Amino acid sequence: MFRFLFVICIATSLFGTQLEDTLKHRDFNGWHFPDQRDHSGNPYYYVPDSKGKYLGTSAGILGVGLLVGITGLYLMPESVTNWDRERFGFRSWLQDVKIAPAVDDDNFWLNGVAHPYFGAVYYMQPRMAGYSWAESALFSFVTSAFFWEYGIEAFVEIPSWQDLIYTPAMGSIFGEAFYQLTRYIQSNQGRLFGSRVLGYTLVALMDPIGFVIRDLRLGKLFGVKNKNELHAYASPLGVSFSYRF
To answer: For residue 101, how far is the Cα from the chain centroid?
Structure first.
């Protein structure tokens, strides 16, 4: 099992590195993805002053969100989630984690859309903090496998092969695309196709946790600051070039 998962991680890492280079350097009919990495050279990028502090804040929000999500799923009809609420509890968790992963019967919406999307959301947290593709893919895998499948969800069902593999693998691929598109929007002062409303809406959908931290300023409450914002305030002209509403 672990050899197979290791091969999957290596394959997605290699594919993701190629995807990242392609998105940055290929001409997409006039779309320009800046060659600069997350440095203060691009004043519109959000660059946290501490990668660890940003990731810690987003991980905390993610944890609360997952707990709220599991509560919502628990309250949904069993015909949708395929969960047996009567066996919910710690004893069921112990039984489920001892059993080998199974192939679940979830519908396409959950397996084909929702799981890859949330895998991308997991991936975006370390990526926007400034970590590499491989580190972000690993975070997505760990969050999906150990926090969700063998953590919260194991209270009500046996861990799923689809969720263990498909969620972080496809999530990392989609997540890198989300990351590049987010940086593209930031480099255009929050605009997409000339519309700031469209730009911010898409950024919020691709990275709702990061949107709350960066754009709704929750990060400041936890001491997370934008390097570029600080740099702009220190400029002789006194003009702020930071990514703002």
So the answer is: 24
